[in-house]
Amino acid sequence: MTILDTIYRIPNGQTVTTEFMSMEYMGAVVFLFFYNGAGVQVTPTGTPAVTRLVGSRYVPVSQYGQDEWRFNGPSDRVKIDLTGVSGFTTYEGYVWRTDHSIDMVPPGAFSGLRAMTVQSYVEANVKNGVQYEVSSLSSAVAAGANIDIVFIVGPKPVVIKAREITFNGARLIARAYVGPTYTGGTPAPYFNLNTRNPVAGGVQILVGATVTNTGVESSAPTYALGSTGQGNTVVGSYRIAGSERVLAPNTTVMLRITNTDTVPQDIATYATWYEGGTDLPI
Length: 282
Description:
Layout: E1 6-10, E2 15-17, E3 27-35, E4 41-42, E5 49-54, E6 57-60, E7 63-65, E8 68-72, E9 78-81, E10 90-98, H1 121-127, E11 131-141, E12 146-152, E13 158-167, E14 171-178, E15 181-183, E16 186-187, E17 191-192, E18 204-207, E19 210-213, E20 216-217, E21 222-225, E22 236-247, E23 252-259, E24 265-275
Antiparallel strand pairs: 1-10, 2-9, 3-4, 3-8, 3-10, 5-6, 5-9, 7-8, 11-17, 11-24, 12-18, 12-23, 13-22, 13-24, 14-20, 14-21, 14-23, 15-19, 16-18
């Protein structure tokens, strides 16, 4: 049986689904166009989430180009979620279904006629507005004293991409815990690495909380060694990068930094992370 190409319209709405589509279609192209109040097409802030219904669950659809998503295979519904997307007044969307598979790779990519750009996850995260950073400086931290930083994960997973601690003493220890018990604390500001199309983060960071139970230790302690030196001050530092830490949604973790030197020292911290869905496991 030959199935003619069909276009399904996506109505305006924050989270909408198409009408039921024939399961005999193979290819699909999803188009979304955004407009301001004057009806002029604009580029919104944030990235729409496009998913398709396969069996009883929705699976993500990869973005192919500006305002365009593609997939192959049967699906009886497509859903659009615009949570976190702003900078537009109205939009229109269409799903073009066809009875044949469609190209998922730009023409010429495998014959030397068109290059394929490869970039790191961090670079892609920054461009998509979902990479964040935070820093702190604690002066004259007493010998044996702790710095506790409470990190409350929101509804999306968090991937810690890098963590760095700089200090001007002889040594310190950093430990991470899940499920601490605490009271108080002051929210610490953090920043998006993208000022063009930033997506608001869902985490909360607290400093100065009173911790009554550290919770369960969740990673290997990090022992950092500096130097007492003679004459000029010698500054020690360590950086954890490449070995990412994945934090589950709706959990609370705590980083405890302990000055194990015999004298006070200054301690500076920096961390950067991604917030959102991961491509593994599928």
